[in-house]
């Protein structure tokens, strides 16, 4: 039996078909500790104790792996945001505020995934699945925005503007709340308090 066959067989037996999931989990861990630039398929293979070629059976290269992580991240963010809207009840304004709050909270609680989807180099690799998830995110958000327009202080604002304003605020908040430098230098930075203030600013309720 050849050495190559032994290595391949060991990889598959050891991981029982879960190597793809393990690579994604390990990659997210690396990104959380060291950033996107530190990611390497060869290093992941070493950390998972498989041959250096094993990861390429699931991901052609680093960009392919990052694209897979991005897709899962967006799907999780969409599910979290939409679920929060449904749990908020039937009031459209409350649903929209809950969705915005959940989206910001997701970025804070998933720092590594947030870093991946905010990285412009990663965004350039986005495939059709990622774009479909983002399109679904826009549809859910725009429906919530339209439903809440009658209870807003600014009902005349175009849906696209409100959506864009929400995304900019979410990304900005995520950049600050997940950046160790800001967290370390801003006194008594409370994520929940900041998120609540931003939601009040984005979607104020009528008095």
From TrEMBL:
Residue range(s) of DNA binding per entry: 40-59
SUPFAM superfamilies per record: Homeodomain-like
Gene Ontology molecular function terms on file: DNA-binding transcription factor activity; transcription cis-regulatory region binding
InterPro entries: Homeodomain-like_sf, HTH-type_TetR-like_transc_reg, HTH_TetR
Pfam families the UniProt entry points to: TetR_N
Keywords linked to the UniProt accession: DNA-binding
Domain HTH tetR-type, chain residue ranges per copy: 17-77
Domain of life (superkingdom): Bacteria
Coiled coil: none
Name of the featured protein: TetR/AcrR family transcriptional regulator
Species whose genome carries this gene: Flavimaribacter sediminis
């Amino acid at each position: 039996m050849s050495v190559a066959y032994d290595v391949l067989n060991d990889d598959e037996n050891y991981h029982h078909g879960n190597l793809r999931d393990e690579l994604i989990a390990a990659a997210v861990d690396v990104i959380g500790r060291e950033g996107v630039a530190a990611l390497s398929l060869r290093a992941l293979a070493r950390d998972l104790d498989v041959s250096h070629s094993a990861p390429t059976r699931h991901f052609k290269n680093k960009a392919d792996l990052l694209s897979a992580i991005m897709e899962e991240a967006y799907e999780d963010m969409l599910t979290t945001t939409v679920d929060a809207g449904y749990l908020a009840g039937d009031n459209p304004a409350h649903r929209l505020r809950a969705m915005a709050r959940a989206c910001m909270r997701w970025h804070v609680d998933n720092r590594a995934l947030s870093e991946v989807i905010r990285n412009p180099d990663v965004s350039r690799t986005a495939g059709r699945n990622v774009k479909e998830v983002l399109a679904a995110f826009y549809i859910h958000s725009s429906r919530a925005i339209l439903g809440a327009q009658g209870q807003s202080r600014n009902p005349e604002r175009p849906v696209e503007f409100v959506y864009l304003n929400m995304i900019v605020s979410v990304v900005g908040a995520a950049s600050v709340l997940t950046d160790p430098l800001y967290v370390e230098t801003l006194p008594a930075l409370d994520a929940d308090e900041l998120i609540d203030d931003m939601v009040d600013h984005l979607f104020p309720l009528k008095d």
